[in-house]
Amino acid sequence: MAKDRALYIGPKLRRLRRELGVTQAGMAADVGVSASYIALMERNQRPVTADVLLRLANAYRFDLAQFARDDQAETEGRLVALLRDPVLADIDLSAAELVDAAATTPGLADAFIRLHTAYAEGQLALADRDETAGVSEADPVAETRRFLEARRNYFPALDEQSEAAALAIERAGGAAAYFRETHGLGVRRLPPEVMAGAVRRLDRHRSEIVVDNTLDAASSAFQLALQAAYLDLSDSLDAALTEGDFSSETGRRVARRALANYAAAAILMPYRPFLKAAEERRYDVEALGRQFGASFEQTAHRLTTLQKPGAEGVPFFFVRVDAAGNVSKRLDGAGFPFARHGGSCPLWSVHQVFRTPRTIVTQWLELPEGERFFSIARTVTSGGGAYGAPRAERAIALGCSGDHVHRLVYAEAGPGPDSATPIGVTCRLCHRADCIARAEPPIGRPVAPDDNRRTTAPFAFADR
User: What interhelical angle do 106-131 and 10-20 show, nearest 10?
Assistant: First the structure.
């Protein structure tokens, strides 16, 4: 590190000191500077020099590279992103003002970002409440979806720590060696009849992690990464949850599980190398999965999390459904207007790929307002692994706005946007009168009597 390098990272220094439970005078004594100098650095009135950084690292044994990283650019990017919210659209802020806010008052900028995130989560909660009027029981899955959606399914602290964990696992020579060296735990694979319904179990008594030996390589790797997340990032998972608004302990537990899965995927597919590979391979999901040893679904899910300001990937949305149309996972980083409750449009190929298992189907979609999106859909299988073992077949769709399609390998062949399939969000919110796939009439459209005339569509409307 250059001797003359200076960083203005006062809030980070203050946070470190408070986490350590050290006073300014105590830190000054440990580092060999005056207490007033510590105070000036914490207020960004003096830089944290390379020499001071080295003294801090020696005194408190932390990762110097991670601590010294300048977060100003990321803060600026997050401010720019949230100012796109319509409620703030009429505020005229220049790029210079944003840079100034991130540099001189990072604590205030962070408070503003947190307040906006809480506001967004509250708006989503109100939307859910309006559509479930009269239902008193809290919905833990809806709470988790709101929690993820308000943060665009991006958790920078988890990404950073997961990347560090991935590097530690690589240096150890693999997950088994890492668990043995770091936690004194062995890794053993056992048959399903011994696992008694579990696919992974931490056995503290025998000091080992046991994994179902019928899992495929991607699932087995994910389970070990998930155990690493629970062991090494537990405090970070809890810290991320403190910003959420959960009305029940069940909702909090479901959200914690989602965050742990996020961290496991980030360990298998660390942000920077994964984004680089995604751009090089033009978001070829199958090729990326093979490169990182992940399943098709794990890879598609990870692609929705590439929201780091200044280093964004294609903003994707993701949905997983079963053959009955039940939505079991939904993530949105692309502004796709999912129905908050109920199914989606049956004309979307995600509901039709069960007829062509494991084959990728591309499709252009056009919403009633004219917005165009591009999606790929394919079936995925969970379970199985042995004859007679239960398995579940589901379909997933990964999509983005039409503005980003040129970045995808899937756009090289096939019809263009003019072939877009007209779809709706859900039948109750879609006013396409001539749709023969309609299951129910839309809200606010009176149904016409059909004594003397029957249309090809299931319903005719009185106002036509």
Answer: 80
